[in-house]
Amino acid sequence: MAESYDLIIRGGIAATPNGIAAADIAIRAVRIAAIGAVKVSAAEEIDAGGLHVLPGAIDTQVHFREPGLEHKEDLATGTAAAALGGVTAVFEMPNTKPSTLTAEDLADKRRRALGRVWCDIAFFIGAAAENADQLGELERLPGCAGVKMFMGSSTGNLLVADEENIRRVLANGRRRMAVHSEDEARLRERHALVKDGADVAMHPVWRDVETAVRSTQRLLRLARAAGRRVHVLHVTTAEEIPILAANKDIATVETTPQHLTLVAPECYERLGTFAQMNPPIREARHRDALWRAVEQGVVDCIGSDHAPHTREEKAKPYPQSPSGMPGVQTLLPLLLDHMNAGRLTLERLIDLTSAGPARLYGIAGKGRIAVGYDADLTLVDLKARRTIREPWIASRCGWTPFDGMTVTGWPIATVVRGQAVMRDDQLLGTPIGDMVRFGDTL
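Predicted structure:
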């Protein structure tokens, strides 16, 4: 009897472990069932002629603000933005109100996601002095992406700045831990530079290179002593790259599309406080160093650090203005544009947005186009020229620092576990997102 399938993606150029070549992809019961020339028909077919079929993009750093800050974003609007941007799974950060510190907090986020999220999702547990001894149990809960530690203060009140508590956090648990690496003592020491009001171009002067380097050196020393793997989020400085490259056995590296695209001082002159984020956008030598780190393989993944605030909040005078900008919906368009400009290959883009995140976090059944894996697919037109416009942005904040930017390369369809949730800039059906699973906690 002929095989039957639920969905066939037909006629595309598929990026599989064998390479990038023409192939149909057949899907049955949420998983990839066959790759190649598929002769039979299916209940549904998508014509991917002229499109590249990539493993679904995984954004491992988003702040969707729910619970407590839903005027900025929530799980429904944030995941809608992800799906429209070609992202099939996201990892959501713990600096909500309340912070995600307990099993009950995590269970509340899982409940909130049910029937409301457009892509698959996992949630980080926040590290704090009060839960440090329980982190080894908390990181194994269903739907948990791992532990996130803030070594420098940013949005919210999560902070682990003293060495004793950093050691406790590192000692409790075995999974790779995500870290915001800025030195809190130096941030406080230098706050006088801006506290009474300053030009926002002072943001990378206050949160300077030494603030990042000092924290990352300390983190690596303590992580090595604890035998703990760490993932350093949103790396921004040229100086951190060789330090991290010398510690790849324990440390992995993320950078963001913002830090690869925007540059100081121009971004602050043009966007003002809307370019403000932590760690900051820095001058061109740092952006150039990040691109070299992408090329040399030092950067392991690219996360958007999607961190929306309302226009009214962002328009406050610096430094009362909050740090952060939306990014989950523009992650792939920006990277596809950089690829077309020759800054990275399509293979490297895939590594940074799907295979890399799956490897770093031990994601079960995602991150590649292979039989038996979840049918998470992003269909892109590598040559489509589009202009990013704010009416396209689904995030509740309604703005993007990339408004008016023309890019080459665009997500045309998003398939989550075998179901198309976006085609041609339109969401389809109802939210079907579920919890991301991990090999360490199956």
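Summary: The chain has a mean pLDDT of 97.
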